[in-house]
Specification:
This protein has 596 residues and is an alpha/beta fold. It is built from 22 helices and ten strands. It has three domains: 273 residues, ABC transporter transmembrane region fold; 173 residues, P-loop containing nucleotide triphosphate hydrolases (Rossmann fold, 3-Layer(aba) Sandwich); 69 residues, Rossmann fold (3-Layer(aba) Sandwich). The two termini are 45 Å apart.
Length: 596
């Protein structure tokens, strides 16, 4: 998408603020300066004794009136620039975040977390700044046209001499536009690499300390910082140089106008007031090429920033980043529209038919998987490492797009699994659960209303109540970044409790008990089944405690379903299942090969 189209779409989205901002620019840069120059001419002509129809005092009164209007115009109208920028910036951040959520399962993040945050924070602000440049340029362009008409009637030769340097300055800004874009792109990339490495370094500080590589990490950070400084200084110096050239070219035009004006005064072709008019308008026109250069520079920066944003959401259309969506600058957000949160819908039967997906970067994936989950059933997916178990869950839930096959909920085709399989229809705990840097209570509720009874029941089912007693503030204990203050088993059980709170119809676990000891795992499954057998479960696991309780076991190899049935049936009929079961029964100190 061309940068100018990005600006126009943002302007249309915030039309009221954009029109107000442009009107303010027209008032300050066009409506007031034109009569101000005419009043200045009348004042100097009156002093020189040239008949103008106005006395010196009348001209002074007009000058004071115009200045007062300019002083009070801002507070009276309220400068709408701030809400215009904020609304456009919020829209792009909102759309960028939604694009990341929709596409994360397909392509993850193309940049590091730190660099992604940098792009999310900085690039929308850079793009939104161009809206102000457009409004200002409209106001100054109207003034340039109006001033040209007035000055042409005074003296065409001086008018041409006035505008030639302005056009030369604008041409210079356009000619150097590609250089501006290259320097800005290099500067932004260096900043992204620096912030990305810094974020990773903070997250891996324990690893760095244990490995004794702190000095190397600091040296690398210093190197990236020096590169960022050098490229940022180059970008800043070049921008300042271009601005200085524009200003000095205009100053040359000022000198030329004064020379021609003095000669014209001597010959009687212009008056002192006419020369004052040229000087007043020239002061305003000095900013015109700077505004043109500013917009050209902003459009080059938009091309860089928009490309950086697009890179982290490659599956989104370019127009999606500036597509209209609700944003809220004041007051509380509106209530969610009807249907935004799905109603509770009882699951009777979930059918998966011929589900297939191939990873674009390797030969892995799943092929032609078919199975049925009946209400209240407990289904375990098992197999060796790389069999495609987690991929199956991701494709089923819409975290990865299926290439073929279909999913039916109570006989109804699920068109978009990513938006369909959400609470209260389903809840999911990944193989490596993530907690937020908040309290344990906030991690379990995730914005849901606090229901003490439901929360206590979920904590009990996840075998987490004993751990709460050891936490200094119980549920209100901050868990640290990504739950760093909790053990791996506590994180997994907290994730399970979070899923139980949703009271979903379909519960999907990806190797939930991998970080639990045998006793805790057995107790968790015992409590889970004692809690209810009316919930449908799909579980990836290799642990005997889960396999023994399964109503059906799905055995996978190489992305395909090679056997299904009860554990007893598979141990009787499947040699692959027999080998897996034997491996799992070996004592931990042996050289067994565990399934995952």
């Amino acid at each position: 998408m061309r940068p100018i189209m990005v600006v126009l779409r943002l302007a249309r989205f915030s039309a009221r603020y954009f029109i107000a901002n442009t009107f303010f620019a027209i008032l300050v840069y066009f409506v007031l300066p034109i009569p101000l120059g005419l009043a200045t001419r009348a004042f100097f002509d009156a002093l020189a004794g040239t008949a103008t129809g106005l006395s010196a005092w009348s001209a002074i009164a007009l000058l004071v009136a115009f200045q007062l209007v300019e002083v009070f115009a801002g507070p009276a109208l309220g400068n709408p620039w701030s809400p215009l920028q904020q609304k456009a910036q919020l829209l792009m951040q909102r759309n960028l975040y939604m694009g990341i959520l929709r596409g994360y399962g397909r392509h993850g993040l193309s940049a590091s977390t730190g660099e992604t945050i940098s792009r999310f924070r900085d690039d929308p602000e850079i793009i939104a700044d161009a809206l102000d440049a457009v409004g200002d340029l409209i106001g100054r362009s109207l003034f340039a046209v109006g001033a040209a008409v007035v000055l042409w009637h005074v003296n065409p030769a001086i008018t041409v001499a006035l505008f030639v340097p302005l056009l030369l300055s604008s041409f210079l800004a356009e000619a150097l536009g590609n250089r501006i874009m290259a320097y800005r792109s290099a500067s932004r990339q260096a900043t992204g690499r620096f912030t990305g490495f810094l974020g990773e370094l903070i997250g891996a500080q324990l690893v760095v300390k244990v490995a004794g590589t702190a000095s190397y990490a600091v040296a690398r950070l210093t190197e990236l910082g020096d590169t960022r400084r050098r490229l940022t200084v180059r970008d800043s110096v070049f921008s300042q140089l271009l601005e200085s050239l524009n200003v000095n070219i205009v100053h040359l035009g000022t000198g030329l106008v004064l020379l021609l004006g003095a000669r014209a005064i001597n010959t009687g072709r212009v008056t002192i007031g006419d020369l004052a008019l040229f000087v007043v308008y020239l002061d305003q026109l000095t900013w015109y090429p700077a505004e043109i250069g500013r917009l050209i520079s902003d459009l080059k920066h938009i091309e860089v920033s928009f490309g950086r944003m697009r890179a982290i959401v490659p599956s989104e259309s370019p127009s999606g980043l500036v597509a209209p969506a609700p944003v809220y600058l004041r007051g509380d957000p509106a209530d969610l529209p009807a249907g935004y949160v799905p109603a509770h819908e009882r699951l009777e039967r979930l059918e998966v038919r011929g589900l297939s997906y191939a990873h674009p970067d390797n030969d892995g994936g799943i092929a032609d998987l078919s199975f049925v989950l009946e209400r209240g059933s407990f289904t375990v997916v098992t197999g060796r490492i790389g069999a495609g178990k987690s991929t199956l869950l991701h494709v089923l839930l819409g975290l990865l797009p299926h290439d073929a096959g279909e999913i039916r909920w109570n006989g109804r085709l699920v068109d978009d699994p990513a938006t369909f399989f959400v609470p209260p229809r389903s809840a999911y705990t990944p193989q490596v659960p993530r907690l937020l840097s908040a309290t344990l209570r906030e991690n379990l509720l995730l914005g849901r209303p606090d229901d003490p009874a439901a929360l206590d029941a979920a904590i009990h089912a996840a075998v987490l109540e004993g751990d709460l007693l050891a936490l200094e503030r119980g549920l209100d204990t901050p868990v640290g970044a990504r739950g760093v203050k909790l053990s791996g088993g506590q994180v997994q059980r907290a994730a399970a409790a979070r899923m139980f709170v949703h009271d979903a119809e379909l519960l999907v676990f990806d190797d939930l008990s991998s970080a639990l000891d045998t006793e805790t795992e057995a107790e968790l499954w015992r409590r889970f089944f004692a809690r209810s057998r009316d919930v449908t479960c799909l579980v990836v696991s290799h642990r005997p405690a889960a396999l023994r309780r399964a109503d059906q076991v799905l055995l996978m190899e190489g992305g395909r379903l090679v056997a299904q049935g009860t554990l007893h049936e598979l141990l009787t009929t499947s040699a692959a299942m027999q080998r897996l079961w034997q491996d799992e029964q070996r004592p931990p100190e042996g050289s067994r090969q565990r399934m995952e």
